Amino acid sequence: MNRCSMVWLQSGGCGGCTLSLLTAESPDLISWLEGEEIDLAYHPSLSAESDDAARATLQRYTEGSATLDILCLEGAVMTGPNGTGLYHCQSGSRRPMMDVIRELCQQARYVVAIGSCASWGGITSAPGNDTDAVGLQFTGQIEGGLLPGDFLSRAGLPVINIAGCPIHPGWVLDTLAELVAGRLTQNDLDALNRPLLYSGVLAHHACPRNEFYEYKASASAPGQQGCLMEHLGCKATQAHADCNIRLWNGQGSCTRGGYACISCTDPEWEEPGHAFERTPKLAGIPIGLPTDMPKAWFMALSSLSKAATPKRLAHNAQDSRLSIPPAIRLRKRKGRHE
Question: What is the pLDDT of residue 285?
Fold first, then answer.
């Protein structure tokens, strides 16, 4: 592809994905767009156009008089009340935004859902969902949102779901770079059409609490250093994202900050059925177990691990700081004539 045109729309959401994207560094967002030869034709928060000028810009793409390469949607699509979409109308008109979005999807070479709201409905679609908010091609875990489950863009791809609440800027920029280069195919997406470049690992991978996890040395209260899975609701072993590998702002992640992973890249994370900071259990066993190993193996290894937990880890897990460092074993120096 030569120079690409991109339209970014915001629908039912908080705008947090745009705010996160603006934290991109080395290069910053504007420099990156120029380097990738992407023309940002319209963004409701970043473009100078509004009302008549903005509608005229979008109309050129909906009617096909201008070529639209990439359409990005941030936020869920509000289809209420009663399927009319009148809860969210295009600025300066009575035209439902869901109609504008649908028409642009038909024209775009690639369609990208930015964030969990655009991907699955997200917080905007949580009960009670008076706005009838849905994702672009999914409603929760069910295929079909504003667009049918079999929708394909002009490039022959489904909606590309860059899910997260919010997104990491690198997930978006890397995905767009792959699209511009023509390298992203269906094989590069997972079963929920998320790019494998960030969903191909678990948030658990590279977590600094992994030593505690391996020995099942768990924290029992906020602020403690132990693994957050057993008692404090952490879902990092189930969440598909590279948050502890591709750090946020170059240095952070939820678990590094002492907060449990709530699996915000997955459908229906917003309604887990229990308090976010508590791990639901059955007969004392966590219900949500790691996705990358058989449950029977996990239970057997957990028992062995707990039995072998070093006293150092057991103590540090329940402490707010590293109070017992790893032991240092000094070899006795042999005498000169031995």
Answer: 72
Number of neighbouring beta carbons within 10 Å of residue 335: 6
Domain extent at residue 169: 4-199
In angstroms, rounded to a whole number, what is the distance separating the alpha carbons of residues 128 and 140?
A: 14
> What gap in Å lies between CA 259 and CA 278, rounded to an integer?
12
In angstroms, the CA 265 to CA 141 distance is 12
Q: What is the DSSP string of 142-204?
A: EE-SSS-TT---TTS---EEE--SS--HHHHHHHHHHHHTT---GGGB-TTS-BHHHHSSBTT
Statement to judge: residues 121 and 40 lie in one domain:
yes
Please, which residues have CB within 8 angstroms of residue 193's CB and are 6 or more apart in sequence? 137, 158, 159, 160, 161
- Same domain assignment for residues 207 and 309: yes
Polymer length in residues for the chain: 338
Give the Cα separation of 175 and 13 in Å (integer): 21
Residues 129 and 192 reside in one and the same domain: yes
pTM: 0.89
Give the tens place of pLDDT for each residue, 143-155.
999 999 999 999 9
